[in-house]
Amino acid sequence: MKRWLVGLFASFSSIGLLFGFAFFAASLTPSLMPRSFVVQGALSGVCAAVGYLIGVILVWVWNYLQLPVTKTGQGVMKVAVWVLGVVVAIAFLWRAAGWQNSIRELWHMEPLDTAEPYKLAIVAAIVFLLAVLIGRLFRLTCLAISDWLSRFIPPRVSRVVGTVIAVALFWSVVEGVLLRSALHMADSSFRRVDALLEDDVPTPADPGKTGSPSSLVAWDGLGRQGRNFITTGPHAAQIGDFWKSAAREPIRVYVGLNNAETIEERAKLALRELQRQGAFERSLLVIVVPTGTGWIDPAAMDPLEYLHRGDVGSVAMQYSYLTSWLSLLVEPEYGADSARALFREVYGYWTTLPRDSRPKLYLHGLSLGALNSQITADLLDVIADPFQGALWSGPPFESAMWRTVTAGRDPQSPAWLPRFRDGSIIRFTNQENELDLPGATWGPVRIVYLQYASDAVTFFDPRSAYREPAWMKGERGPDVSPRLRWIPVLTMLQLLFDMATATTSPMGYGHVYAPEHYIDGWVAVTDPQIAPAEVDALKAKLAVELRSVEAGG
Questions:
Q1: What is the largest CA-CA distance in the chain?
Q2: CB of 6 within 8 A of CB of 71?
Q3: Distance of alpha carbon 125 from alpha carbon 107, whole angstroms
Q4: What is the rounded distance in angstroms from the CA atom of residue 482 to the CA atom of residue 472?
Q5: 141 pLDDT exceeds 70?
Q6: pLDDT at 192 over 60
Q7: What is the average pLDDT score of the chain?
Q8: Contact (Cβ atoms closer than 8 angstroms) between residue 250 and residue 310
Q9: DSSP state of 31
Q10: 447 - beta bridge partners?
Q11: Stretch 404-416: mean pLDDT, rounded?
Q12: Which of 12-16, 97-101, 157-161, 529-533 has the lowest mean pLDDT?
């Protein structure tokens, strides 16, 4: 065993180790999300492996170009790299807790006494070794293909071609076969499990509710997220108690994947259920696109129903069971067809109604729901009879409309809080209400983006591997560590891990949006007749109630 370990360590490239240790150390610096030792260890292990790979590639290029190489002192150099690397790693591990606390302090979280460096290092070492083993398997594949090709073409050409073929082979296996197959298998499996899963939520007795015996939508087909959406939220009595006056019972319609076979059938079913419940007789109607799992954020919908005293109808249609960030990375178009179908059905019927008696129509989506909702909102398609507005929260980095607007912002405004043209159609906000722009007047369509500067789902950018993101330049967002620095390649990897853990943040940071911030957005978009003092009272009420639900969950 001892001889095997010595052989393993001796087989490492000195230049690769030099880069590996440098990447490990730099990975401990802060990005957008605070990290546990497990997450940090996994990130550091991946970063060390990427650094090692860069070093190995540089050595390969050097040798391929037949540049001079000295063989003397190789052993001494390797020992020196190990000693220097360990010393640097220890120094950076010692500072890791302080870097993490630079985020936690801004987020009003308890500071860390220690980053648990021993556990962190063990996790990183395991991840690094696994990555190296995969890399060596890739190298063996390259050599095997190159040796075979060398029978027909010159050796140097065979190496290049063999490497290209091996890359294509590994990529197709991982991305094209394993990852996408796993994605669809997971979606199918969760769908069957969700359909069979029994929970404690009883079928609604009220005939006006979706899923009731009188409903066109079967209760069993809604799935957990659909049943949760239908049965939670404020009732007329609760809304009336807050306003000290009569309120209406909000209408919530939801159609699950198991309620009909095709997207078109589910969209038509949703429209018929809206008609059955009288949603087109309400003051407001909201087309909601849920997240990848089918979840609809109560912090978004509850405030709207309070603001308009329950005179609100909302409709949503499930399209997946997968976490949004995973769908976003693998298939960013996931759910687009579903969102379009629902919008087409609801909007198509809505335009047939008299303009002076139909409800005002709004769009909403969080995360992947925001991406897919934006796809349906091409103003050129609805310019003759536009909807009244939209509130999109946590728009993912793949959102084409969001990217276009952000890129076209006033250059004096930061990328994490853009100001777009005259502010008559589109405005941005965050934890602070930034929607009252001096000199700006709302037009007939009001669109608000609610986004936190610390949300990696919004601000992840694969191009951060080779260029500094615009949101890191100049003034930082109020919830972003001032110690965050752009490091080529490494920042992209940090943001990738931040995106995967973005929903673990406290409410009001990362990818977890707070009701009080939704209230500001809904007030701007829907313009309810409500006094500032009443807005503050509603914020205080829902901030306590929904945070306690989050803590209990």
A1: 88
A2: no
A3: 30
A4: 10
A5: yes
A6: no
A7: 89
A8: yes
A9: -
A10: 390, 426
A11: 96
A12: 157-161
- Give the chain's radius of gyration (CA, Å): 27
Q: Which strands make up the sheet holding 312-317, listed edge to edge?
A: 251-255, 312-317, 284-289, 360-366, 389-393, 446-450, 426-429
Query: How far apart, in whole angstroms, are the C-alpha atoms of residue 19 and residue 260?
Result: 54
The Cα 548–Cα 233 span in angstroms is 14
Domain limits of the chain? 197-452+513-552
Q: Cα–Cα distance between 392 and 401 in angstroms, integer?
A: 11
Give mean pLDDT, residues 304-322: 93
pLDDT of residue 6: 55
Burial class (CB in 10 A: 0-12, 13-18, 19+), 318: buried
Q: At 527, is the pLDDT very low, low, confident or very high (cuts 50, 70, 90)?
A: very high
What contacts 300, CB < 8 A, 6 or more positions away? Answer: 364, 366, 391, 393, 513, 515, 518
Residue 132 Cα distances to 12, 25, 54, 82, 85, angstroms:
9, 18, 12, 17, 17
pLDDT band at 409, cuts 50/70/90?
very high
Distance of CA 222 to the CA centre of its chain: 24
CB contact set of 331 (below 8 Å; sequence gap of 6+):
180, 183
> Is 521 exposed, middle or buried, given 0-12, 13-18 or 19+ CB atoms closer than 10 A?
buried
Spatial distance between the Cα atoms of 538 and 551, rounded to a whole number of angstroms? 20
Residue appearing with tokens 């296996």: 173
The CA-atom distances, in angstroms, between 149 and each of 57, 60, 154, 160 are 21, 19, 8, 10
Q: 64 to each of 53, 61, 135, 441, how far by Cα in Å?
A: 16, 5, 19, 63
Contacts with 117 (C-beta within 8 Å, 6 or more apart), sequence order: 90, 93, 94, 96
Query: Please, what is the Cα angle at 276 between 271 and 281, to 5 degrees?
Result: 85
* Residue recorded with tokens 């003759």: 384
Contact 187, 321 (CB under 8 A): yes
Residue with tokens 């897919």: 372
> Per the structure block, which two tokens stand in for 13?
């490239």
Length of the chain in terms of residues written: 553
Sign of CA dihedral 193, 194, 200, 202: negative
More confident residue, 197 or 395: 395
**What are the helix and strand counts (H, E) for the chain?**
20, 7
Instruction: Tell me the pLDDT tens digit for each residue of 468-504.
Output: 999 999 999 999 999 999 999 999 999 999 999 999 9
Residues 6 or more apart in contact with residue 243 via CB below 8 angstroms: 309
- DSSP-derived 3-state class of residue 447: strand
Q: In angstroms, rounded to a whole number, what is the distance separating the alpha carbons of residues 441 and 429?
A: 16
Q: Give 333's pLDDT tier (boundaries 50, 70, 90).
A: low
Q: How do residues 32-88 score in pLDDT, each as one tens digit? A: 999 999 999 999 999 999 999 999 989 888 887 777 776 656 778 888 888 999 999
Q: Quote the distance between the C-alpha of residue 315 and its chain's center.
A: 22
Average pLDDT estimate for 247-256 = 97
